[in-house]
Design brief:
127 residues, mainly alpha, Cytochrome Bc1 Complex, Chain D, domain 2, 2 domains, flat, binds heme C
Amino acid sequence: MSLVMAHNRAARCLVLLLSAYTAAETIATPAQGQSSEDEAAYVAYGCYECHGYAGQGGNGPLIAPTQIPWEAFERIVRQPPDSMPAYPREQLNNETLQRIYRYVQSVPKPPEAADIPALRDRMTPLP
Ligand code: HEC
């Protein structure tokens, strides 16, 4: 094999590798406006255990996408009204809690049932 051919081969190989890498990157990219670091903080502090990975609710209520202003959000997390465990500053600092807040704000709203064909069809009244 000539040196030029070997070089071309290597270049093609590199292009293939790069495009595979970019494709993988595209898949791993969070939804617009979402940061994987913010989500990681949400998961690391166990919020998902009761509120679900997307804040959709479980043992705790739905918390995403949140309409609660930051001040109220912080108050609830520091001094929850009822059975939620409290997260004092020493355990979860404000910088990290702001990340968590950004994450729950960034969760996209679910579509309306009427916009999901399989559900819309079921909503049609029976004759
Ligand atoms: C052990 C379960 C549990 C965990 C873990 C937990 N929560 Fe909660 N959360 C609850 C429950 C239950 C409520 C309802 C209020 C109460 O019982 O205190 C709640 C309420 C809330 C609310 C108020 C929702 C509303 O609309 O009134 C917010 C905001 C919230 N949690 C955020 C968080 C965040 C952020 C984390 C992680 C740092 C977290 N929670 C971890 C159980 C949990």
